[in-house]
Amino acid sequence: MNSADFRRGVRDVSPLLLGVAPFGLVAGIAAVNAGLDLSQALGMSVVVFAGASQLAALDLLGSDAPLSVVVVTAAVINLRMLMYSASIAPYLRDLSAKWKSGLAYLLTDQAYALSVASYRSERSFDRKAYYLGVAFTLWVVWQLTTAAGVVLGSGVPDAWGLEFAVPLVFLALLVPAMEDGPTTVAAIAGGGVAVAGAGLPLNLGLLVGATVGIVVGLAAETRMDVEVSDGH
Question: Is the residue at 92 inside a domain?
């Protein structure tokens, strides 16, 4: 494995850690508020390792929602990982099944966005090493900050404004990804619906927004392909 490319991955992800760290603190604090102890919170963080679905699940647990609703909500939110996997798989097809499984566990929004952008722009570098530099760094920071959030609990002052960490992290990833018409339309439609449905029970606004974004984006891409094939 190329250590230089690994270090490059660490370097490229470092700016995003400014948003991921408070995101992890929020997840840890949310775990305490949901009634989890340190071992339970860390166990969930290690096994699930998915910020958005962790926060949604913790919110539901804190609201005494049925376990089936918690699991389904977390799974639906993480369905985007299937699309990420399908998109990044061609770049890593030469790796063994063991390595692919390990890298799949480390897959996150940030790891996907940075790695795919790098893969598309360059050909001659160690893709596995770069991905690990990005993804493993994110994993370590997430676990440490989640643990810190659990230990600090509700003692973190509201003035710190940690709740803004979550949207800021996703905005930092969303804006560069809006590189064409379909992705831009999908982002606007999905984001708008999610915001409008923020008050729906069981975090359904997020699920509906994600679904609308995917459908609108696919429709826009299909229309664009048809226009291109027709010579418009």
Answer: yes
**Spatial distance between the Cα atoms of 131 and 197, rounded to a whole number of angstroms:** 35
Query: Helices in 63-203 by DSSP H: which ranges?
Result: 67-77, 80-88, 97-105, 109-121, 127-152, 165-177, 181-196
Structural domain tally of the chain? 2
221-230, Cβ contacts within 8 angstroms, sequence gap of 24 or more: 221/182, 224/181, 224/182
Instruction: Return d(Cα 53, Cα 65) in angstroms, integer.
Output: 15
Q: Tell me the per-residue pLDDT of 183-210, one tens digit each, with 9 for 90 and over.
A: 788 888 887 887 787 777 766 776 687 7
pTM, full prediction: 0.72
The pLDDT score that the predictor gives to residue 176 is 64
Domain co-membership, 231 together with 199: yes
Is the pLDDT at 107 greater than 70, yes or no?
yes
Structure tokens given for 60:
């539901």
- Based on the fold, state whether residues 102 and 210 are members of the same structural domain: no
Q: What is the mean pLDDT of residues 104-119?
A: 89
Residue span of the structural domain in which 68 resides = 3-164
State the CB neighbour count (10 A cutoff) for residue 169: 22
- 3 state SS of 212: helix
Tokens of 202: 């069981």
